[in-house]
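Need tokens for this chain, all 126 residues.
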Amino acid sequence: MSHFTILNLPTFSDTRGSLTVLEKALPFSAVRTYWIYGADGQTRGGHRHVSTRQALIALHGSIAIYMNDGISEETITLDSPSQCLLVEPKDWHTMTFGTGSVLFVMASHIYDRSEYIDTPYELPNK
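Here are the structure tokens for all 126 residues:
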């Protein structure tokens, strides 16, 4: 069980394929959407936010998301378009992309560089 929130989105499958529905699933309104691709083997992110919430979906491939909220840390692998990881403002995160991966991101605020916190948490030695 994850310390972080992973939504299992409603998905309907039959012989024609699968359809996943995002309608009313997010606990915030998405005002900015973007996708990251062509980042094979690269690690991106490395920040948290002042107030922006995000929702991440691996539309294709596999992406390892390192999450750290200052209390817990965990690496969550997104590899199904029916799963959505919620990233709260306090969540320091990095994303490491597998070959051919596409990450779809929805954010609660428009881009504002001053909203980013680039200093990671330091967890006490366990």
